[in-house]
Design a protein that fits this description.
CATH architecture: Sandwich
Shape: globular
Strand order of the largest sheet: 1-3-4-12-7-10
CATH class: Mainly Beta
Radius of gyration: 14 Å
Largest sheet: 6 strands, antiparallel
CATH superfamily: Jelly Rolls
């Protein structure tokens, strides 16, 4: 057993996020065979990810606030504390806070043995974000 020290809170890079986003790594890279990744991600009102997909899928668990999520071509869905959302491998999506609320979630996914675990695309436009 190993008790991990708390990591420093990091700011979400502008290439991947619009607005102010902060994250804490709860479970990062570990020696094989572990591939689990778990982050706490906090979004300020209006903040969101860019379009992205995950090689092995992603699970989100909303812990506080009110958020939004959309699969490419689908409706924007409002998400709330206690809800868990799964996006399957390769599904393009974005998620973030509403324009008026903070939102935090646990983001859980697996790395891949070789290759890219997350593929990042273009930023969600204001028009796309406001289309609910």
């Amino acid at each position: 057993m190993e008790i991990q020290p708390k990591s420093n809170t990091a700011t979400g890079p502008t290439e991947w996020f619009t607005g102010d986003v902060f994250f804490d790594v709860l479970a990062g890279a570990r020696p094989e065979p572990s591939r689990m990744r778990v982050y706490t991600v906090r979004f300020t009102p209006g903040a969101r990810t860019a379009w992205h997909s995950h090689a092995v899928g992603q699970t989100l668990h909303v812990t506080e606030g009110v958020g939004l999520i959309q699969v490419r071509g689908g409706e924007i869905i409002e998400i709330h504390p206690g809800q868990t959302i799964y996006t399957p491998p390769g599904e393009w999506h974005w998620h973030g806070a509403t324009p008026t609320d903070f939102m935090a979630h646990l983001a859980m996914w697996e790395a891949v043995a070789d290759g890219t675990e997350t593929t990042w695309g273009e930023h969600v436009t204001e028009e796309e974000y406001g289309a609910r």
